[in-house]
Each structure stands twice: as structure tokens, then as C-alpha cells.
Design brief:
single chain, mainly alpha, three-stranded antiparallel β-sheet, 5 helices, Arc Repressor Mutant, subunit A
Length: 132
């Protein structure tokens, strides 16, 4: 059975995490993106060993249903933040890349997030370690 201390430690960790997530949401909004659009750009540019991803890979990374990702990508493509094309190996697979404008927005957000993590990072690590 969880103790009072367990609840307090978990609450402290969630509070620290939520403060960072709120910063992230507000930073994305300040450059005209939703949090999901920011996460999509980050998932594309940060995909291991390459700077593109399939729609299915993005659905997994964003923890969204495939059709929800397609709608998200439709809006992002219309805004000029991503491009889509067929895989040269399998035309059924749609590959997504960040456009130059999308990469520029992501660079700005990444700088802001790295600065914020320098501030919140130690607190997040400490509260996570306290959960053990």
C-alpha cells in the first residue's frame, strides 16, 4: 500500500513535470504551433538515424491513432511546416519531412526548451530519484 510519502513524492514529480509541459505548450503557442505540432516536428527531426518518419512511426511516437496523425499532418502541410512523399522502396508508405520553415520553428523551440531544461532539469531529476 502506498504511503503518504509515496503520494507526496509522486505529486512533487508530477508538479515539476507539469510546469515544464506548461512551458512547452506556451512556447509552442508563441511561435504559432500546437503542442502536438511541436511534438510532430520534434519526432520527425529527432527520429533515430534520420530526419524523416513514416506516418505509422509518427503515430507511435506521438501515441496517437493513425487517422489522427493524418489529420495533424494535413494541417501542418497546409501551413507549410512539413512535406510528404512516398517511400522510394514502398510506394504505400508515406514519409514525412520537416520543411525549412518547420525546421526553423523547431530550432527556435529547441533553444528555448534546452534553456528551460537547464533550469528545471536538476529539480526533475531529483524528484524522479525520490520516487525510488
Amino acid at each position: 500500500m502506498p504511503s503518504r510519502a509515496d503520494y507526496e513524492k509522486l505529486a512533487a514529480f508530477r508538479y515539476t513535470l507539469r510546469r515544464f509541459l506548461r512551458f512547452s505548450e506556451e512556447a509552442a503557442a508563441a511561435v504559432g504551433l500546437t503542442p502536438q505540432q511541436h511534438q510532430a516536428l520534434l519526432a520527425i527531426e529527432g527520429f533515430p538515424a534520420r530526419n524523416y518518419a513514416s506516418v505509422s512511426e509518427l503515430a507511435e511516437r506521438l501515441q496517437l491513432a493513425h487517422h489522427s496523425v493524418v489529420g495533424l499532418l494535413d494541417r501542418m502541410e497546409k501551413a507549410g511546416w512539413i512535406t510528404r512523399g512516398s517511400s522510394p522502396d514502398d510506394k504505400r508508405i508515406v514519409l514525412v519531412r520537416a520543411s525549412p520553415e518547420g525546421r526553423n520553428l523547431l530550432r527556435r523551440l529547441t533553444r528555448a526548451h534546452k534553456a528551460q531544461l537547464r533550469q528545471f532539469g536538476p529539480e526533475m531529476i531529483a524528484s524522479l530519484q525520490n520516487l525510488h
